[in-house]
Amino acid sequence: MNIQITARKFKAHETLKEFIKDELTSLQRFNDDIINADVKLSFQNTQNSIKIAEIILSIPRQKLTAKEESDEFKKSVAGAVEKLRNQLSTIKSKRTAKPR
Q1: What DSSP designation does 30 have?
Q2: What pTM did the predictor assign?
Q3: First and final C-alpha spacing in the chain
Q4: CATH numbers and ranges of domains, the chain
């Protein structure tokens, strides 16, 4: 899986990048065919800012997106990964339910 992290208007720390990579590699448990993951980190305002994490996953024949907002980047990333986990498990259940 190819992971690309984009931080808008700031420079992301290595600890945050490692956290994102660990969270995204945990998604391979639900689908081994993940080709690409594009993570975009941004924030609104400089005071009392809302941190936004948007993740776009590319799997064969589909693109999955999830966006989460919170007061910390780690919470935002974890929330977006949880949404993607739900989407991947839904896709997996639909795939196994269809007769071949």
Answers
A1: T
A2: 0.89
A3: 27
A4: 2-95 (3.30.160.100)
